[in-house]
Design goal:
The protein is α/β, with parallel strands linked by helices and 163 residues long. The chain is 39% helix and 18% strand.
Length: 163
């Protein structure tokens, strides 16, 4: 067993936890929503200092894992963004390109799978429903409240299963 496989996991969401999505919210205000443009703009997200600091702090004792509702087709941009921010390497769990379930279902499913073999020290996420469900399932949760909330993004997360 390697040293890293014995360390607990610290699981971090991306959008509005580590990455500021405010500049791309406009694509969700249109009807129909412009999901391609929304995700295409993600590489230009500014880092959120509070979340970035928490990742680095957590990495001292934990293996960092990233859990996002972004679709798999965004993997390259996501990995490049994480590296550009100087964040610790870690496995990135993304939703399937055709998966439209609400984030609280997809993320809890992955958390439970991870917890079968590893201790999850903390989940850090901005989505209130993800946090509530994870807490009810017995996970320690830190709700990221350092980014401006978007009603459009919240609706998209819950009703459209897009992020």
């Amino acid at each position: 067993m390697t040293e890293s496989s014995r360390r607990p996991l610290a699981v971090f969401d991306l959008d509005n936890t580590l990455a500021d999505t405010a500049h791309r919210q406009r694509f969700l205000e249109r009807r129909p929503r412009d999901w391609d443009a929304f995700f295409a703009a993600a590489p230009r997200d500014a880092p959120l200092a509070e979340g970035i600091a928490l990742v680095h702090e957590s990495a001292r004792e934990c293996e960092v894992v990233y859990l996002t509702g972004r679709p798999e087709r965004c993997r390259r941009d996501t990995l490049d963004w994480l590296a550009a921010q100087g964040l610790p390497e870690g496995k990135v769990h993304m939703r399937g390109n055709a998966d439209r379930r609400p984030a609280r279902y997809t993320k809890l499913e992955i958390l439970r799978r991870l917890a079968r073999t590893r201790e999850i020290r903390v989940l850090v996420d901005d989505d209130e429903l993800v946090c509530e469900d994870a807490r009810r399932a017995g996970f320690t949760v830190v709700r990221a409240r350092w980014a401006a909330r978007s009603g459009e993004l919240r609706a998209a997360q819950e009703r459209e299963g897009r992020t």
